[in-house]
Amino acid sequence: MESDTKPNVLMERYELGRLLGQGTFGKVYYARSRVTNQSVAIKAIDKDKVMRSGHADRIKREIYVMKLARHPNIIQLFEVMATKSKIYFVIEFAKGGELFNKVAKGKLKEEVAHRYFKQLINAVDFCHSRGVYHRDIKPENILLDENGNLKVSDFGLSALVESNQQDMILRTPCGTPAYVAPEVIKRKGLSSFS
């Protein structure tokens, strides 16, 4: 994964598989641990892109938050590895994919929607009780495991209350405009969103 063509094995520990998704700073791959045989996802982040964009703090914050936020309804971070050009997050593999894809297929049954809502509220409450604010909850950032349990992911825009810049960070609008409350968009304008 150092170059555009990815090797079959990462750091002699993970057999890499198919591409699961792509984001601003890198790609997410399916992988299997050669030690435990466990299925995982590996988020490969391009260091140069992060440094050029000035978002190194965002990546550090995401690592810190994911280590802090250990909860059954939050994607677990197993380890972080790095090479000269990449940072790799080894995270829990959510076999069920994005909630967005399930919702796009049609209306959820009431009991399923209620279970998802309860799991989401539990995850958000857990984060808030530890001073972590996700700030980009949307169906694309909510994954499902093989048992249909909800898993909150992508803490890249999260804020920490303990931060020295807490007032600025918590007052800065961010997220995805399609999911932000209309009054925020009217007050701040779309151009201020991350």
Automatic annotation (TrEMBL):
One example of the protein's molecular function in GO is: ATP binding
Looking at the keywords, is Nucleotide-binding present? yes
Q: Which GO terms describe its biological process?
A: signal transduction
Name the keywords, alphabetized.
ATP-binding, Kinase, Nucleotide-binding, Serine/threonine-protein kinase, Transferase
Binding positions for ATP? K43
Q: From which domain of life does this come?
A: Eukaryota
- Recorded protein name is CBL-interacting serine/threonine-protein kinase 10-like
What Pfam families does this protein's entry cite?
A: Pkinase
Q: What does this protein do?
A: CIPK serine-threonine protein kinases interact with CBL proteins. Binding of a CBL protein to the regulatory NAF domain of CIPK protein lead to the activation of the kinase in a calcium-dependent manner.
**Family classification:** Belongs to the protein kinase superfamily. CAMK Ser/Thr protein kinase family. SNF1 subfamily.
Name the Gene3D superfamilies for this protein. Transferase(Phosphotransferase) domain 1
The organism of origin for this protein: Trifolium medium
Identify the InterPro entries for this entry. Answer: Kinase-like_dom_sf, Prot_kinase_dom, Protein_kinase_ATP_BS, Ser/Thr_kinase_AS
Q: Where is the Protein kinase domain?
A: 14-194
